[in-house]
Predict the 3D structure of the following.
Amino acid sequence: MIEICTVGGYDEVGRNMTAIKVDNEVVILDMGVFMDKYIPFNNALEEGMSLNPNELIRAGAVPDINLISDWQKMVKAIVLSHGHLDHVAGIPYLADRFKAPLICTEYTAEVIKAIASDQKLKLSNRIKVLNPNSSIKLTNSIKIEFIQATHSIPQTVMIALHTKYGTIVYTNDFKFDNSPILGKKPNYERLRELGKQGVLAVFMDSIYSSDAKKTPSEAVAREMLKEVMLGTESEGKLVIVTTFSSHIARLKSAVEFGGLMKRKIIFLGRSLSKYIGAAENINLVDFSKKGEVVRFSSMIKSKLKEVEKKGRQKYLLIVTGHQGEPGSVLQKIISGKLGFRIGYEDLVIFSCTVIPTEINRKNREDLEKALRAKGVRIFRDLHVSGHGAREDERDLLNMLKPKYIIPSHGPREMVKGAAELAQEMGYDKDRIKFSHNGNRFKIG
Ligand SMILES: [Zn+2]
């Protein structure tokens, strides 16, 4: 018998964690943080304080692993889909409660190690690297398979759990991108094959299930970036690009266009240095050969002095601060904390959208206001999402033909479109399993 506990990420966008019990063996999928609740703690961490996991659980910043305390000794593996914080950043606080290895791709492993070392926490679980499009026998009755997916961070996979009761596929997070810029296309062939063999259930990333579209490829975001970086007058002006630090494909495009602009490229900021370092450790990119990566505030200050001296028009700065976060490089430049002036008609390119939370909206509004006051040219929203929308989800369901659909990656009101889609496709209501944090249900 298979029993599922949806531990976190079913009442919010964040702290994703799902536990699947197959007879008396349990596999945990993902262990992330909920950024809204985690940020205050993270700030404390930066001031040198240590964090108590129970406090994080109480605050709702990480999944409440106590919901599966009766399963604790049965856990055989913690399997991770990709390196985003809402999927892995709970690991350094919670994973040592389970005597089980972490199974993930090479890049995800590098990110987890970087997060742990950043937080000065020790990882006590063994890390077992599994490549996309390969599988391992976990126990006599469970096989774990990684299927190549596409998203907005390298080496994202869909996880298939093969059991004697059937196969469960976990797709948080995915889009179907046929020109992903970095890495391979999704493995459609394998998805179709699984569909033919029979899939018991799919956890479907349903965050944009109400959006009647197919999410555009990363190649579209690249064109948007190209249009601005190569197609607007920037001679004599400083150019600044900011985007998600973990979005290595996007950074790759920015670096390439920076090269074509014949500019010296400098990455500024701790999180950029962290994710680039992780990608360079496994030879995914070689940004430090094409530019310079500067991590710490003190060095950033002197580097910006050098930029000023040698001529700002010769540089492309890629910086942290796309959401206007206090303490980010962009925000510190604007507030004058780095002793560097951003001037009239300099270009600031936001290759991102504003993540719709109250804090982000306010931060970005303040940042843009300050930029406008200085006469800076602002380019917003040069971005496409890493999540599929309704028509990607339809393709997924047509390929996998699952018996049950478990809409995931957000609260009910955000993922409810999955039910409309499924009913449109002829699924009975009882085959769509909405869940909340802490719910348990059996399938088979
Ligand atoms: Zn993600």
Notes: The chain has a mean pLDDT of 96. The longest helix spans residues 358-373. The pocket of zinc ion is lined by residues 82, 84, 151, 173 (CB under 6 Å).
